[in-house]
Structures are given as C-alpha cells and as structure tokens.
C-alpha cells in the first residue's frame, strides 16, 4: 500500500489503483453516514476532489491521489458508509482508477513514511 | 458545518489533543489566551478531543464519538460542560424593568422561580442574542446567555445599566463565575433525585430553585436545556464542580456519560432549536425566526423594546421570509445551501444549519424561505455541491420534545 499526505491509501494492481482513506482518517472523521462516490468514467488529475465522505459533524473531501480515470466504484459503501470506518483498507475501499501517469507513484509514501 | 481538508494543518490540530495534558500545553503555547473551565482536566482524563470555541477550550467529543454520544442523551443521560456560557445576576428593585429595556418578553409577569426564553433585539428589530431569564424568589434574576456573545452581551447590559441608573433606576449587575452543567435525558430524574432534597416533580420545565446537589452547596438548578429532552442545568461553584460531576457520572441509577459540543449541536437541531450566529443573528427578526411567541402581547402594545415598531409591523403584515425546518435524504444539508422552488426555477432562500439526524436517519436542516413557501409539506430543492436535493418543509421539532410540563 502507498499513502499520501491527505490520508488516502492506494493499492496498485497492474495499471489499476484502488483508493480509500486510512485508518487514521476514519478515526479523525468519526462515524460516516454518507459517501458520495465519483461516477465511472470521471477523469481526475492528482489532487482533484474525487469523493465526499460525511459524518454527522462535517463533509470531507477525498482527493484523487494520482491522475486517473474511474473504472469502478464501491456501491456497497454507498449503502453502508460505516464500512469505511470498520474496514478502511478492505471492504471500505472507495473507487478504482486506471493509472495514466505511472511516474506519480514515486511521489507516494510507503507505510513507514506515512 | 466545516469542510475539513485533510493535511498537515489538521494533523497538528489532532496531535494537540491526543496523548493528554503535557502534549496540549506544549503545542498550545500560541493559544494561551483560550480560557478553560473548572472541568478542563476532567475532560482530558475522559479522553476528550478539545477544540477552541468562543475563546474557550471545550470538548467537541469524547471516546465514543458524536453519534454514540447523541443517542446516549436520547436514551439515557448525558452531561455537558457549558461553563463557557455567560451567567449573570441582576439585582435591584427595578431589575425586571431593566431587563425589559433590552428584551421582547414580559419579565414583570414572570412568577416566582419562573423562567423564560427571550431575545435581546437591536433598533432594526434584529436579534443580538437569545437568552433565558429566571425570576428567582431570592430578589435577583438569573440570566444565561451564549458564550459566543458573552463580551457583547455584557457590554450591552452594562451600558444599559449605566443609563438606567442615571435615570434613577435601582439595578445591580454582576457576573456569576460558576461552572454550569447541563444534565439531559430521559433518565435525568432517576440520576438527580437521590442528590437533591426536594421532589423534582415540583420543578417543572422552565422553573428554577437553589440548594445542595450531591453535597455541593450553593447550586442553582433550572429545569431547562438545549436538547429537547427532560433535563436540568446546574450552576455550581467552581470549587465543587468536579465533585458534582463525579457524583452524577457515578450514578447507579442509569448510564451517565459526558457529552461534547458536537453532539450538542446535532441534538439541538433535532429539537428545532436555534443556534445564535447560524439560525438567528442581527439580520433576523424574532418574527422571521418563527419566535413571535417570545414577543409578549403586553410588550407589543407598549412598543417598549428596541426595534418594537418594525417587529410589531411584521407581526401585523407578515414578514417576507420565515425560518422553517426541512427533511431530506441523500447528501446531508448543512448551512449556507441555496433553496429553490420545487421545479428549481426560483431561488427562495438559504439554509442556516443542518446535519444528518442520528435519531431519525434522515437529514434535517433549517433555513429561511420566502413566506409563501413556508408551509409544512412544501416541496423544495436544496443545492449541495451543484446537485439539487429534494427536500420538504417540516414542522419542528423533528424529534418530539420531552419537556416536563405540568398539565
């Protein structure tokens, strides 16, 4: 897993990247009650607003950690936002991107650095 | 509600409040001017996340989190440290006339130990703050107003005191430096009754009394709150605050927990109660805010409060906008969202606050709309992040209130 400074994680599988938010992020946010996923086909540049997660208290942006096109979204999380809290790295994944610029992966952090 | 951006700025914020007291003191050197209540150490020991609020360092949540804390108040008992609010003592034989110089409600008509919600108004008929005035039977008024307006309220009251005394009025104003604990929830009576020497059945909603609570002298107990639940607010000398809090939390009658400001906000929203600065402010009149009931009939006739002509005119002719509640699903509605007519063609207002309702599992919000759209059941569209959410005007409170009112 790789990480970035805005507390997203990314799992690389060939030219696909699965994206979610970290354990630390979910504990900061508290219980999530709503998740607004991107749409399949959305194209993001690194740092773009990709997704919104909401707790009782506030709405928070999740950013695209790299350039990419959305190829899959986790509908289960739409119906059960609490999965992001209980399983941020597994069942609580948010969306998958087709990687368009592999060089950006070098800019991400390893677990130690994060 | 705030849009949180993750990043190093927030990381430092969190570090300040994690790991306990010594970390906080080091990192908060630049926030040295934030005030702390008598219960600051207690909050930290209970795992509170502290945040700046109205110049104070206050607990926004504890270990359970906002949803859990919110539901606990609706099901058991929750305790809020609201010591940051302004508590004032008003003495003197003309104290009621004095307060009436600034507020819209008939204070002279209050019975012994009866209290009322009211508002300070300005000459434009706008609201300067909302407050509770209690007519104690001990020759003073006990007044509680918002922490966020404490400096302004005190300046306003002091200036009015000066001119009132100049005209020969007898009044004396002083700040009560007590802690203030709000004890709210359906089990409040079972928890508090063992600690007081009077029957809580004799203290109905919006009445006040004083006495010892769990051995702590000099307390004032008022049957009121900001959650919609049955509850009291206990004004307690700072030296006794920790002991009182420990006694309440240690109750064997029910599960009593400390609750943070985060849940305080979602609870009051479900109860349809205004938050000054969000839902009411100097640009909203009590009539627009759906608080016309605070403007006593006697005061309407006498026109003897700031903004009286404007306010009474609005009562007669109807205001152009009204504060209403909305229920919706999908993306939660917060404040400052534009409201449109059902077909989306006309901008009819703006929301002032909102949140996902932990009790109802729908989204609740409030805001102002043009008066023709203010009827319950009116369908509207509310704009969230460029999407139009379907909403419906709803009566408030969203969750039925449980005030202890004698029939």
UniProtKB/TrEMBL annotation, chain A:
Gene3D superfamilies: 2.40.50.100. Its cofactor is (R)-lipoate. GO terms for biological process: glycine decarboxylation via glycine cleavage system; protein lipoylation. Residues 16-98 form the Lipoyl-binding domain. One of its GO terms (cellular component) is mitochondrion. It comes from the Eukaryota. It holds the Pfam family GCV_H. Keywords: Lipoyl, Mitochondrion, Transit peptide. It is found in: Mitochondrion. InterPro entries: 2-oxoA_DH_lipoyl-BS, Biotin_lipoyl, GCV_H, GCV_H/Fam206, GCV_H_sub, Single_hybrid_motif. Coiled coil: none annotated. The modification N6-lipoyllysine is found at residue 57. Binds 1 lipoyl cofactor covalently. Belongs to the GcvH family. The glycine cleavage system is composed of four proteins: P, T, L and H. The H protein shuttles the methylamine group of glycine from the P protein to the T protein. NCBIfam families: gcvH (TIGR00527), PRK01202.1 (NF002270). PANTHER family: GLYCINE CLEAVAGE SYSTEM H PROTEIN, GLYCINE CLEAVAGE SYSTEM H PROTEIN-RELATED. This is Glycine cleavage system H protein. It comes from Elysia chlorotica.
UniProtKB/TrEMBL annotation, chain B:
Keywords: Aminotransferase, Mitochondrion, Transferase, Transit peptide. It catalyses: N(6)-[(R)-S(8)-aminomethyldihydrolipoyl]-L-lysyl-[protein] + (6S)-5,6,7,8-tetrahydrofolate = N(6)-[(R)-dihydrolipoyl]-L-lysyl-[protein] + (6R)-5,10-methylene-5,6,7,8-tetrahydrofolate + NH4(+). GO terms for cellular component: glycine cleavage complex; mitochondrion. Belongs to the GcvT family. InterPro entries: GcvT (IPR006223), GcvT/YgfZ/DmdA (IPR028896), GcvT/YgfZ_C (IPR029043), GcvT_C (IPR013977), GCVT_N (IPR006222), TrmE/GcvT-like (IPR027266). It is found in: Mitochondrion. Transmembrane segments: none annotated. The keyword Mitochondrion applies. One of its GO terms (molecular function) is transaminase activity. This is Aminomethyltransferase.
């Amino acid at each position: 897993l790789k990480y970035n400074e805005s507390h997203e994680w990314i799992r690389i599988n060939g030219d696909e990247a699965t994206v979610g938010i970290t354990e630390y992020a979910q504990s900061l946010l508290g219980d999530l009650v709503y998740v607004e996923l991107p749409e399949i086909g959305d194209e993001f540049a690194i740092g773009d607003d990709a997704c919104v997660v909401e707790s009782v208290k506030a709405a928070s942006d999740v950013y695209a950690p790299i350039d990419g096109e959305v190829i899959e979204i986790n509908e289960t999380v739409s119906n059960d936002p609490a999965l992001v809290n209980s399983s941020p790295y597994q069942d609580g994944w948010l969306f998958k991107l087709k990687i368009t610029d592999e060089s950006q992966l070098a800019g991400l952090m390893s677990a130690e650095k994060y | 509600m705030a849009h949180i951006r993750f990043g190093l700025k927030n990381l430092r914020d969190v570090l300040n409040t994690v790991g306990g007291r010594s970390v906080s003191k080091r990192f908060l050197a630049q926030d040295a001017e934030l005030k702390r209540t008598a219960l600051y150490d207690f909050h930290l020991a209970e795992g509170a996340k502290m945040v700046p609020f109205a110049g104070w360092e206050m607990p926004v949540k504890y270990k359970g989190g906002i949803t859990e804390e919110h539901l606990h108040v609706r099901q058991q008992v929750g305790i809020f440290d609201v010591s940051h609010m302004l508590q004032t003592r008003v003495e003197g034989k003309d104290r009621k006339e004095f307060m009436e110089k600034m507020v819209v409600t008939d204070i002279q008509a209050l019975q012994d130990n009866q209290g009322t919600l009211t508002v300070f108004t300005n000459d434009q008929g706008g609201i300067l703050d909302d407050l509770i005035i209690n007519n104690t039977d001990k020759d003073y008024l006990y007044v509680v107003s918002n922490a966020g307006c404490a400096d302004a309220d005190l300046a306003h009251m002091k200036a009015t005191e000066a001119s009132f005394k100049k005209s020969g009025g007898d009044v004396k104003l002083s700040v009560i430096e007590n802690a203030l604990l709000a004890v709210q929830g359906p089990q409040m009576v079972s928890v508090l009754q063992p600690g007081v020497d009077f029957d809580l059945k004799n203290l109905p909603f919006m009445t006040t009394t004083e006495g010892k609570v769990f051995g702590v002298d000099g307390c004032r107990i008022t049957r009121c709150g900001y959650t919609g639940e049955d509850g009291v607010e206990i004004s307690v000398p700072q030296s006794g605050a920790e002991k009182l809090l420990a006694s309440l939390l240690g109750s064997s009658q029910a599960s009593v927990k400390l609750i943070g400001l985060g849940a305080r906000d979602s609870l009051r929203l479900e109860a349809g109660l205004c938050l000054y600065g969000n839902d009411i402010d100097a640009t909203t009149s009590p009539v627009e805010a759906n608080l016309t009931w605070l403007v006593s009939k006697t005061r309407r006739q006498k026109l003897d409060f700031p903004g009286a002509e404007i306010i009474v005119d609005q009562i007669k002719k109807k205001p152009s906008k009204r504060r209403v509640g909305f229920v919706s699903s999908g993306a939660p509605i917060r404040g400052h969202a534009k409201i449109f007519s059902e077909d989306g063609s006309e901008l009819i207002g703006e929301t002032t606050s909102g949140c996902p309702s932990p009790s109802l599992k729908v989204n609740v919000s409030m805001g102002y709309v043009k008066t023709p759209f203010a009827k319950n059941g009116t369908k509207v569209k509310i704009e969230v992040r460029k999407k139009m959410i379907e909403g419906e005007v709803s009566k408030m409170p969203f969750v039925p209130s449980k005030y202890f009112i004698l029939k």
